[in-house]
Write a structure and sequence with these properties.
This protein is α+β, with helices and mostly antiparallel strands. The protein has helices at residues 7-12, 17-27, 38-50, 56-65, 80-89, 92-107, 133-136, 170-174, 194-202, 279-287, 290-302, 313-336, 343-352, 360-367, 370-373, 387-404, and strands at residues 118-128, 137-139, 142-152, 157-165, 184-186, 206-210, 218-223, 231-238, 255-261, 267-272. It has a domain at 188-288. Helix 5 (80-89) crosses helix 12 (313-336) and helix 6 (92-107) runs parallel beside helix 12 (313-336).
């Protein structure tokens, strides 16, 4: 009987192993104090992430039960203590480098002119136990970490990751993020810094964000707005020329304010340095920021990133990086097997059959009812719906995808 690889192997084949070997050599990651190789460490952590393991001992037990299937993966059985030591001591840069390589691998299929590229910037917080208090204390009795992400909504993938303690401001991290000249950057009030905006403007980037309600704006021109839409005003002008302590405002160029009214009646002041696009296009760009919120929701609910297997800063960083690696592997495998339309349904089928000896294509073809093959469930939101209303619609969409799965 011919040998048949397991479903897990179908995911791992998308990993650029030569890149991992180079990173291991560059950061002297092999061997660790317990003799666990990086490849086996990565496979064990990916397995735990994909099967939603609740602890290191659960990963150890499950891998031992599938010991005969690990040889062809390049993995091995791993003890709880060896995995704990590896998470605490192996350089995080190895996993971060592999994540960057996978991001670039997926991005190559979405080549566009840089002027058409949209970059969403945001962060998500995760709560940690008090055992992480030596590095992640947020307030009295509360510990947490933040994953700061640059996200491409067109390719539906992250492009950049930085993990910090929860008490680090978003704008502090944003100033260290790479800037792609000519791209469009969309972000919220957490990144309110005129100096950083000026850097983006000087790099030829388009900025779309929100102005605070008390920010003065000197109007130069009041432009006409289309009737029958949420846009109520479109004005060009200048931000304040002076800041606190009489400091000069570096964002002194002619800019634009587009006011929109959401379903609750609240008016949003959308700011942009794009003086040519229509007001509706600017409003639609800011609305796209919700895509990164859906991405955070997907990662936390499907890959269980809200539960951590270690308490040290290095262990938390590694687990977040591995969760994003798992997300990208699922994306690459889904793109290669367009049998199941819903990425959520695809992820759940893979998780339920991770160690079965079948190819992914055969598994999906056997499990997909004909009535669902043409169905594709997507998230749809009304322009500028309230955050609560958007969450309700996201919950209904997730419930619909659960039924499809």
């Amino acid at each position: 009987m011919p040998h048949q690889n397991i479903v897990f192997h179908g995911l791992l084949k998308h990993i650029p192993w030569t890149v991992l070997d180079r990173l291991v050599e560059e950061h002297h990651a092999d061997p660790d104090p317990r003799g666990l190789k990086t490849r086996a460490h990565l496979i064990a952590m990916l397995y735990g992430q994909l099967c939603s393991a609740r602890g290191l001992r659960e990963i150890e037990t499950n891998l031992r039960s599938h010991a005969s299937k690990l040889y062809h993966l390049g993995g091995c059985t791993v003890s709880k203590s060896a995995l704990s030591t590896a998470n605490a001591s192996r350089p995080f840069e190895v996993f971060a480098g592999l994540l960057s390589a996978l991001m670039a691998q997926l991005q190559r299929g979405y080549r566009r002119k840089i002027g058409d590229c949209v970059r969403l910037i945001d962060s998500t917080s995760v709560q940690l136990s008090s055992l992480s208090g030596d590095w992640a204390t947020f307030s009295a009795g509360v510990c947490g970490a933040k994953a700061h992400i640059i996200y491409d909504p067109d390719a539906d993938q992250p492009l950049y990751l930085m993990v910090t303690a929860a008490n680090i401001n978003d704008i502090t991290v944003a100033k260290e993020m790479p800037i792609e000249p000519g791209a469009t950057y969309v972000f919220d009030l957490g990144y309110y810094d005129y100096g950083w905006w000026a850097r983006l403007h000087q790099a030829g980037c388009r900025i779309v964000t929100q102005l605070k309600s008390n920010t003065p704006f000197t109007v130069i021109e009041d432009r006409p707005v289309p009737a029958g839409c949420s846009v109520v005003s479109d004005r060009t002008g200048y931000l304040p020329q002076r800041l606190a302590a009489s400091r000069h405002n570096p964002m002194s160029a002619l800019v634009r304010e587009v006011r929109v009214v959401i379903e609750t009646g609240q008016a949003l002041r959308i700011f942009t340095n794009d003086l040519t696009a229509s007001a509706r296009d600017i409003a639609d760009l800011y609305k796209r920021r919700w895509a990164i919120e859906l991405f955070f929701r997907w990662i936390k609910q499907i890959l269980k990133i809200s539960h951590f297997l270690g308490t040290s800063e290095n262990a938390v960083r590694i687990q977040i990086a591995v969760a994003l690696i798992a997300f990208l592997l699922l994306r690459l495998a889904h793109d290669a097997n367009r049998i199941v339309a819903s990425p959520l349904a695809f992820a759940r089928v893979i998780r339920a059959n991770l160690m079965h000896r079948r190819s992914i294509a055969e598994l999906l073809a056997a499990r997909q009812p004909p009535s669902l093959q043409a169905r594709q469930i997507t998230f749809q939101f009304e322009p500028f719906a309230s955050r609560a209303a958007q969450r309700r619609r996201a919950s209904r969409a997730c419930a619909a995808m659960d039924m499809a799965a």
